[in-house]
Amino acid sequence: MKQVPSSGPVSRARERALTPLRAIHPVWRLNVAISTAAVLLWLGPVNQYAPIAEPVLPWWLLALAIAVAETWPVNLEFRRSAHSFSLTDIPLTLGLLFSSGGDAVLGIVAGGALALAVCRLPPVKFVFNLAQFALVASAGVLIVRGIGGADATMGPETWLAIYGATQVGGLLTIALLASVIWLAERSLTPQQVRQMFGMDAVVTLTNTSLALVLAVVVVERPIAVPILMVPVVVVFLIYRAYVAERQRHEKIQFLYEANRTLSGSPEMAEALEGLLRRAREAFRAEQAEVLLLPEDGPALRTSLGAGGEICRMEPVDPELAASMRDFAAAHGEPVTLVPPFPATIRDALEEQGVRNAMLAVLHGESRVIGTIMLANRFGLGGTFTAEDLKLFETLAANASNALQYDRLEQAVGDLQRLQAQLRHQATHDPLTGLANRTLFGHRVRAALAGHEQPPAAVMFIDLDDFKAVNDTLGHAAGDELLVAVGGRLRLAVREDDVVARLGGDEFALLLCHEDVESGAADVAERIMRAFGEPVHVAGRRLSVQLSIGIATTRHSGARAEDLLRDADVAMYQAKEAGKGRYAMFSPEMRETILRRHGLKEELAAAIEDHQLVVEYQPIVDLASGRTRAMEALVRWNHPSRGRIPPLEFIPLAEETGLIVGLGRKVLAAACRQASQWTAEHPAEPPVEVHVNLSTVELEQPDLVAHVRRAIAEAGILPRQLVVEVTETSVLRDAHRGPATLHALRELGVQVGLDDFGTGYSSLSYLRSLPLDCLKIAREFVDDMTESEEEAAFVRLIVGLASTIGLRVVAEGIETPEQLARLRELGCELGQGYYFSPPLAAFEPRLPGVEQLAST
Question: Fewest C-beta in 10 Å: which of 48, 193, 514, 718?
């Protein structure tokens, strides 16, 4: 018996790529190894052995018997390989008994070569089979002589040796076949190997038994040989009947499973995919496809490809589908296809890498509803047989019946609705129903396409303080707010303008007007007015502010990427300018952004390289002119850009998170400096040091622990440290902020409210927060001498603070007039360039105010 491996087909492109590598293909290497071993055995020990019994069987007669047995095998095919049952074990056994070792191998190889030549196998398969014949025959000779001895005779010991030789030969053949299939396909399973071994063992045992009986008859009673040929022929016919019955059973089972798959699956695409999988396995095909041709809508393909590719109900070229339908319908019955293909469908088949195929139409009640095709058959034959075509015709008829009764139209309609739904989901925001970032970018590119200078504007819109809504009211309220914002934006623009939600609390608009610059400004103002009224969310009325950035093709050009980027830049400029406003992009903004980006890259290194230093500005008793405290202020001395203002790098530090590490360094340095001043002047009251806490720092869960550690390491009294916070930072988290300040107050640290009057300015939180002092913002001090309203406001703050026991510090004092007015209003403390700019650590004792004024 023999088994011929069948390598799985590959694409034409891969065939061309592998052509130069044929000489080193792994299967060729295996062939060389097998051939070398067989030749060495044949030239060596195998040639030494004489025949065991007479009459002597010449090599040419043995070759003829082998050729006859191998020419009419019984083929049992697996997916990509074929197992062939034959009576070869009978002449092989006779050769081991009645031929010399050399003649036995020569006859078996010569007979195998004749049979293989008839099959017209590719060279790699031909060489493999011939080499394994030679190796199995040589191994058989050695096993028989190894067990029976060099002078073996016709007897039970030799018979056992023959059984061992044929069984080992069968095992060796299966092992070699498994190796070559694995090298060629990487697809052999343990189950297939076990099945091959089991079948081979039974067949080899039966054939060897018949051959031994025949050998005994030849030796003892030659005239009875024709009688023994009857059971030999019967065994051969039994093999064929078994294989035919097995294949018939497999066909019936396949049709049953195919029908159950089509009728039992509620989803058409799933049913067709299951059908194609079973059909591809049953017919040992590499590719399978169904083309459905609904009355309304495009032709749809479901297919399984060679490399595991799956195509489910995907639209195909109408002309291709029509050509396949017309060709199949013209033949009526299923047809096999081999090169050269008909001109009408040649391109379609060659594009899919089809080498051979079966094609049939799927008939509906009144029209052709599709086609089904199986392509590239594996196995010995390499093409589909007439038996395959009959089974395929039954499969096509069953599939046609299953697809009738409006299932096709219903499935196509459901599919089209699903595809439309998926397309909408892929391009729209699920929460607001607005266009998403992908669709918005596509619309912008489409609006700019084909125009050198198209009139278009993009607006980026960001909700100010949206995080506070999520933190205080919950994410459900935040989602409700986003939906409401999306609705108001729709009402504020024209019907043909595009409104999108880009993600989070970011929205965008695309405007295509003739005068987009003034038109975009009008739209921005209209949007601002639309949000002048509060939004109802979670049973509350919320005031909503927006920051809007506008970019037009006038300054940004006709590239979508530039327009989108510049709108984003302008939006951040609007937010930094104070929120609740819009900004129109200008080229200068890009330079600012580039500078900011460069500063971001350099800031982390600057902190490590000590380019950022702490300076101290005195806080003075306005009555006596003596220094009462020092405020620690961080400054950046850039090696090439010079002094960089805090307003430029502090926001960057907050954005990048570097503010936490920077703030802690400032805190530690200020505490150490306060300790040094106290040690140098033990007779004086301990100097207080003011340190600013940013919003990000205030949100750190370990802030209190870090402050406690900084105080302890510096050795100062807790009350010497005054932490300054802004109204906005405290109220960003209405629960955590006040709780953190109370915890700091429990340490003994004092708390100051910076820039009072510029934030919420609510009297209620002045009562609830643990404050020790208020700092009047520079804006009020600047206008105090010019405006009675501002002076009245300062008087109100001073009076209020005095009533609830808080100290008041006026910031930004720069003139004698401001100082005189603050004294008149009863302000206790002040700081500003009139007294001193921020300085490096120094002796904190300044001359009196009058003396400073005179200088």
Answer: 514
Cβ(44)–Cβ(36) below 8 Å: no
Side-chain-side CA neighbours of 420 within 13 Å: the count stands at 6
Pick the CATH number of 599-854 from 2.40.128.50, 3.40.50.300, 3.20.20.450, 3.30.9.10: 3.20.20.450
CB 429 within 8 A of CB 501: yes
State both tokens at 579: 């929120």
Q: 363 or 529, which is more confident?
A: 529
Tens-digit pLDDT profile for residues 156-208: 888 888 888 888 887 888 787 777 766 665 555 666 667 666 667 777 787 77
Query: What Cα–Cα distance (Å) separates residue 81 from each residue in 182, 378, 766?
Result: 11, 7, 88
What HEC string does 584-614 produce? ECCHHHHHHHHHHHHHHHHHHHHHHCCCEEE
Is the pLDDT at 16 greater than 60, yes or no? Answer: no
Question: Is the preceding omega at residue 454 within 30 degrees of 0, hence cis?
Answer: no
Query: Looking at the domain 250-413, which fold is it?
Result: Beta-Lactamase (3.30.450)
Spell out a b/e string for 425-455, using b for 16 or more CB atoms within 10 Å of the CB, else e.
eebbbeebebbbbebbbebbeebbeeeeeeb
Q: What is the mean pLDDT of residues 459-463?
A: 90
* Residues 6+ positions from 668 with CB-CB distance below 8 Å: 710, 713, 714
pLDDT for 86 equals 67
pLDDT in tens, 796-805: 888 888 888 8
Domain boundaries, the chain: 2-220, 250-413, 428-585, 599-854
3-class SS string, 357-377: EEEEEEECCCCEEEEEEEEEE
Note whether 105 and 46 are within 8 A (CB): yes
Q: What is the CATH number of domain 2-220?
A: 1.10.1760
| Sequence-separated (6 or more) residues with CB below 8 Å from residue 412 | 268, 292, 294, 296, 297, 300
Q: pLDDT at residue 684 above 90?
A: no
- Rounded to whole angstroms, the Cα distance separating 162 from 167 reads 9
For residues 560 and 773, the model is more confident at 773
C-alpha to C-alpha distance for 676 and 672, rounded to whole angstroms: 6
Q: Which CATH architecture has domain 428-585?
A: 2-Layer Sandwich (3.30)
pLDDT higher at 505 or 468: 505
For residue 850, the model assigns a pLDDT of: 36
Per-residue DSSP letter, 701: T
Average pLDDT rounded to a whole number, residues 730-741: 77
